[in-house]
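Can you give me the bound-state structure? Components:
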Amino acid sequence: MKKVTFYTLASCFLIFNLILCSVPAFAKEKIVIGFVPMTLNNEYFITMVNGARQKAKELGVDLEVQAADQHASAAAQLTIIENMITAGVDGICIVPSSSEGLVSALERCKASNVPIINLDTKINKEVLDEVGMEVPFYGTDNYAGAAEAGKYVLKHFDKGAKTAILTGIKGQQNAADRRNGFYDQVKDHVNVVAEQSANWEVDQGYTATQNILSANPDLQLIFASNDGMAIGALRAVEEAEKKGQVKIIGFDAISEALNLVENGDMLGTVAQYPAEMGIKGVENITKKINGEKVEMHINTGAKLITKDNVKEHKDYSKQFAD
Amino acid sequence: MEKVNKTESFSKIDIQSLALYIGAVLIFITFTILCGAYGKSFFTLDNMKNIINQSAVIAVIAIGQSIVILTGGIDLSVGSIVGFVGIAGGLLLKSGMPLMMVIGVVIICGCIIGFANGYFVSFGKVPAFIVTLGSMQIIHGLTMVLNTGRPVSGFPSELRMVVSAKIMGIPISIIYVFLLYAIMITVMKKTTLGRWIYAIGGNANAAKLAGVKTKQIEMLAYVFGGLFASIGGIFLLSRLSYADPNAGMGYELDVIAAVVIGGIALSGGKGSIGNTLVGSLILGMLKCGLQILNVPVYFQTIIIGITIIVAVYLDKAKERKAE
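Here's the bound-state model for the whole set.
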């Protein structure tokens, strides 16, 4: 019987926990929007969610945010969507874990008549055709963002400048898009002497750059496909005492990278506007729930942040920081 | 004499399990009340189906893991087998192989992986943790190599029917889960094989002296581990109709959690497979209920972590008392 009391205690503890962290009760007639980013463990998605939260507050709708705990996976997102539908959300904004992994989840939404808006990572046309749904997409494309960095390089670097590219995980669409967006702009102008995958990771960006530098001591430019790898590259460049010689451009405009751009440690970083995606997503899904027409495609834009405009961008970002 | 023993062991199991069932029911009631208070529905027939459906993959893999843990071992490779089955099965399907044949092939693959694990553990004397830690990496790497790290999609709709078909309104995945558990509970309780598995985990030397072929039986446990992991992999592939090379990552931990919540001792020899199903459902119920209540994701992991420790803490009450 002692055990039984223990279980009772355990359950009381659970209830306590639940009350602690549940959101306040809501009135049923209020519109409830489900918001599913890939994960909540990086700044990009946190900014997106904060943008969405602010808009939801302004419109007076409820926002329920759920994400996979560590890895973005199609399995976790399907479970989340099933549970959101059970919980009775009126519409869902989702950043899919991959462009083709949401067939079953979309089927569920279609069967329950829950409208969807696709943010950031575009769902494949084949998938949408298979399910027979038309889903609006709001985001930017990585290719265009990386091309912004490429255009800057065309203007500010001499012809034949020795360049290295650090790419993301091989086989991922966004990794390919960022690499190609940059490469297609600069391929006839600079001399790409090295190209390596550092799997989006800081430490791998560091070692890859060490290796690239020892093979190419006269390197002038590194384009890293995300800021993590750019920061790793910067450490390697600093260690080799080549900070004046090697310029680094990153991607994502995370706050650490913006600080480095401001100090002049990094040349620039490509900013996307995740908060805009969250704002536009919530605004339009609310319209959709109310039966209004919404735009099928919104380009939320991308911009290269350099020393010239970093201050302005930081001020803009501040309103979506925690 | 025999009869007395039987009733004794029967009532013992009952009391141990009872606490688990009460815990499960209390969690269930908690969610029903809380969701009710927030104007959301938890205790509906659809959501019950939903929870079992969502728990099916973990519950099925946990059958094999239970057997391995009962022998005193552990199988960390099950999650990677799920990913492997998805990509290998997906590629075979895309190449035009009939669905039933694909299922057969990947299940055989799972058994072979389990066989290799078991061989190194039982005959090779390498600790199970190390063998399966290694094979986890090997299988994950192989999965990446198979399709250069890319996912596979665009499957015929018959694939989804494997687990989504309904019989009299009940999703077939639920029927599979109960059927597989019923079979394995019978095997563990009624057959010599089952008794031998318990015997190895309880005291391998005594079992050996009693004439049990301990090495073969131990190896067989890992074959079960691979078998049920591959079945779980097929469930997931069918549920998503999409194969992701990273699918199943971390599942080994969810599965081990389900087994220990169900009360099987990590040292082996003690516990019942049926309770593993309850353990899996408790995990599924927590995830579903917390998501419906819109508890932030990191609080969910904290609560699930607490549940695992509390469950085992309660399970050890008797041992603490004995000391």
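A couple of observations. Chain B touches chain A through 59 residues (CB under 8 Å). Chain B has one domain: 2-322.
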